[in-house]
Amino acid sequence: MSEQSEFLFSDRASDTDLLLALFEKADRLFVKKLSNNDRDWARFDNKHQAGVYVPREHRDGGFFPALKVKKRSDPGASEIRERFFEIVWPQSSDEPKKARLVHYTSKNQETHLTGLPRALFSDLLPASFLVMGRIRNDPEPLYECLTIDSGSDDAAYLTELIALEPDFTIGEFDPAGTVEEERERILDFAEQVIEAWLAGDIIPFAAHNAAMPNTTDLAGMARSQFLERHELATLNPFEICNPGDALREISRSIEWDLFREFQRRERAVALVRIVMGDDPVTTVGAAHVIRRLVDELPEIDRLMLSASQQRKSRAGYSYEHHIEAMLVGGGIPFEKQVMIEARKRPDFILPSLEFINAKKPEAETGLILSAKTTLRERWKQVEREKGKRALFLTTVDENIASNVIEDMASFGVHLVIPESLKDAKETEYKGHTNVLSFREFCDDVVQPSMGKWA
C-alpha cells in the first residue's frame, strides 16, 4: 500500500464513527436487515431486482418522501409511482447521490430503492444491514446511508445502539427517544449510586448491585427466565418445538439483555469509584472532579476497553453452557472438553470418547458436537478436531456465506442452526445438504442413535 493510500485510508472515519454521527444528527432512522435479493443485484448481473425492497408500510409511513405519478406516453399503461431524492453515502463519498424510490403498480405493492452504490453492497455477508437516516425533510428531503457488514464489530455496535432483537428484520427508530430511554435507565441507577457514595457504602453497594455474575451463573439466569416465560420445566430439545430457536432466544436475547444491564451498572459504579474514590468528602467541586478525570484517564480507558472485550469473550462460553443444559435436559449422554489427541479438545463428544474409540460398528454413530456462537474462520480450527469422526457444528450465526458452507461440506462438517434461519431470506443456508436445523439434528441424528449409546 502506498503512503498516499495509507493516509487516505486512515483519514476516513470508521464505520462505527459514521454510525454514531448519523445517530446523533438524524431525526429518524430506517434500518433493514438485508435479504439475499437486497444484495444480489450488486453481486450478480442476472438478477431482476434492482436495489433494496421497501415494504408498503414503510414506503407510505412518512419516513420516505411521498411518491408521484410518472408521466407516461401510453395512457393505458400501468401506473408507475416514483420519487427522486438525494442520499449521502459517507463510506464512499461526501457528495450526495441521486436515488429513486419506485413503485410499479403492475407488480402489486412492490417498491424498490434504486440508484445505490454497487460497491457498498457487493461484498456484504448475509444478514448485513442498511442504515438510513433522515437528516432533513424540508424543503427537499436529504438522507444519509450506511451499509453495515454483519461480520463486523460495527454490526454488534449497531445491535447494541438501538437494542435490536435477534429476529429483527426491519424497523424505524427515533434516535432522540432511544437516547432518552437509555438516559432514564442510567439516571434511575445513578440516584442509588450517589446515595451509596455519600453514605460511604459504595464498596458493599458495588458488590451487591453492580457485580457482573460469572458466565455460568449469568447463563443459568437466562435459561431460568426462558423456562418461566415459556412455562417449561426443563430445556429438553425433544419437547421443545424449535430447540434451535430456543437457544437463539436464550443466548442472543434474554442473556444479552441481562448482560447489558449488569455491565451498565458495573461500569457506572466503577467510573464513580475511579473519579470520586471510595470515601465521601465534605465538598466536591468541579476542580476536584476535573483533576480526578485527568489523573485517572488511563484507568478509565482500561475500563472501557475491558468492557468491550468482556462483551466479545462471554458469548462463546455461555453458548456452550446452553448446549450443555439442553443435552442434559434431553437425557443425551455426552462428555465435555475431553482431550482426544494432542491439543484437540472438542466442546462435546456424544456419547463418550471411550464409545467413539471402540472398535465396533456402533462406534460410527458417535459424533463430535462443537458450539460456536459466531464462526468466521474458526470453523477450520474445529475441522481439525474431527479426524474420521462425524462433526456437527452448531451456531446461531446468520452471516455464513454459501461458499463457506460448501467448504465445510467438502471437509465433512455439518452445520446445526436455529430452525427460523434455515429457510430465512436473509441467510444462505437454504439448499445445502450439510445444514440441519437443531430440530432435525435431534430427531434424525441423535434420537435414532441413543439406543446404541446406552
UniProtKB/TrEMBL annotation:
Tagged with keyword DNA-binding: no
CDD domains recorded: EcoRII-like (cd22322)
Domain of life the protein comes from: Bacteria
Gene Ontology BP term (one): DNA restriction-modification system
InterPro entries in the cross-refs: DNA-bd_pseudobarrel_sf (IPR015300), EcoRII_C_sf (IPR038365), Restrct_endonuc-II-like (IPR011335), Restrct_endonuc_II_EcoRII_C (IPR015109)
Keyword tags: Endonuclease, Hydrolase, Nuclease
Restriction endonuclease type II EcoRII C-terminal domain location: 294-441
Coiled-coil region: none
Recorded GO MF terms: DNA binding; type II site-specific deoxyribonuclease activity
Keyword DNA damage set for record: no
Protein name: Restriction endonuclease
Organism: Guyparkeria halophila
